[in-house]
């Protein structure tokens, strides 16, 4: 976890959970193209930055990876206030799109398969461990932590240690065959 001290808040069910504030961002150059994600987690006075990059991916996939990497980095259940400038991510979670997709077998209201299912499933599993509050923030509007996440995205891409986004490649392959994942 993030250099833990004994700072707790009361939570439902009689459990005491640590309160973690998270900011995330993701992006791709070319969309698709090389992409990266950045996340900042704060717990009391502790601060942790995460970043990573992929050689061929999309903006939306990197927005999801930012959230996933932040949540998966927490070693125990927490109360998480997560900020993202991605309407794609925030709307799917606050407007219950994700719940609907799952209920309908990963099919959207337009009867087409949900894109990025591999990451949505991973995000759903990661978020289920925590008490989540989702908050949209306007990107590139001067919020220092959102701006730092954007810097982490570009640092990760520029570092050149790009991973393969196998989920994106599999999705493209399935799309080419006429059946999206």
CATH superfamily, by name, is: Ribonuclease H-like superfamily/Ribonuclease H
Helix content: 25-40%
Largest sheet: 6 strands, mixed
By CATH, the topology is Nucleotidyltransferase, domain 5
How far apart are the termini? 33 Å
List the helices and strands and how they pair.
Layout: E1 9-10, E2 16-28, E3 33-43, E4 46-57, H1 59-72, E5 78-84, H2 87-94, H3 97-103, H4 117-127, E6 131-136, H5 144-159, H6 166-176
Helix pairs in contact: 1-4
Model description:
This protein has 181 residues and is of the alpha/beta class. A hairpin with a 2-residue loop joins strand 3 and strand 4. It is globular and about 50 Å long. Mean pLDDT is 90; it is low at 1-12. It has helices at residues 59-72, 87-94, 97-103, 117-127, 144-159, 166-176; strands at residues 9-10, 16-28, 33-43, 46-57, 78-84, 131-136. Strands 1, 2, 3, 4, 5 and 6 form a six-stranded mixed β-sheet that branches. It has a single domain, classed as Nucleotidyltransferase, domain 5, CATH 3.30.420.10.
